[in-house]
């Protein structure tokens, strides 16, 4: 036990950057409480992109400095038309520029970790080959996975909530929010098994505990 304590003391906390995008935050029943958790979490820098850039004039230098300063980057957003809200696409187009994020000299993000925290309006069974939306949730995020691969970041399965339109009345928000708190804490403390998470289809509040270091399946 003493050795375990010494090992824990030697762990350097990770720095996590949450880039949050919700174009209609006042109507949010899921993402607003999630973002509040991120703002309160130790070791996490939480940025509301729509609040910070209401005219979409993104400060490239500021955003690149944020990326350099952090070890883990999370895009938090509601799934809009099977993709991100528009400001996250604008952010990618401007911030992840040649010579910084990719190209022979664009190695600033190599070795960092990338993850999405998303909410989807449809039920979980809608997101499969024979379901209403025809694709699994991770398949719909393939453009972000490839973006992560191109810039040298390690891609993780998304932290996901389905049925978000009725999540509040179905009593799902509290458990999902608490799961997000646990996820962020595990990322900061480096207790999440990234090798396991990288291979999964999705991360949820229900299966998060099985992805911790030392967990048995």
UniProtKB/TrEMBL annotation:
It comes from the Bacteria. The keyword Aminoacyl-tRNA synthetase does not apply. Gene3D superfamilies: 3.40.50.360. Keywords: Oxidoreductase. Residues 14-182 form the Flavodoxin-like fold domain. InterPro entries: Flavodoxin_fold, Flavoprotein-like_sf, KefG/KefF. The keyword RNA-binding does not apply. This is NAD(P)H-dependent oxidoreductase. The lineage of its organism: Bacteria, Pseudomonadati, Pseudomonadota, Gammaproteobacteria, Vibrionales.
């Amino acid at each position: 036990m003493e050795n375990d304590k010494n090992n824990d003391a030697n762990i350097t906390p990770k720095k996590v950057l949450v880039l949050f995008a919700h174009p209609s935050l006042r109507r949010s029943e899921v993402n607003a409480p999630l973002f509040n958790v991120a703002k309160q979490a130790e070791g996490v820098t939480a940025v509301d992109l729509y609040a910070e850039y209401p005219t979409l004039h993104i400060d490239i230098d500021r955003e690149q400095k944020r990326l350099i300063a952090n070890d883990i980057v999370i895009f938090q957003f509601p799934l809009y038309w099977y993709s991100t809200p528009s400001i996250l696409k604008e952010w990618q187009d401007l911030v992840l520029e040649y010579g910084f994020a990719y190209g022979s000299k664009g190695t600033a993000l190599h070795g960092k970790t990338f993850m999405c925290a998303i909410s989807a309006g449809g039920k979980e069974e809608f997101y499969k080959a024979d379901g209403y939306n025809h694709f699994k949730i991770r398949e719909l995020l393939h453009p972000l996975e490839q973006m992560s691969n191109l810039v040298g970041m390690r891609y993780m399965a998304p932290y996901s909530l389905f049925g978000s339109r009725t999540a509040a009345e179905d009593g799902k928000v509290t458990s999902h929010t608490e799961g997000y708190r646990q996820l962020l804490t595990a990322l900061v403390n480096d207790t999440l098994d990234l090798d396991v998470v990288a291979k999964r289809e999705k991360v949820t509040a229900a299966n998060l505990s099985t992805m911790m270091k030392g967990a048995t399946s």
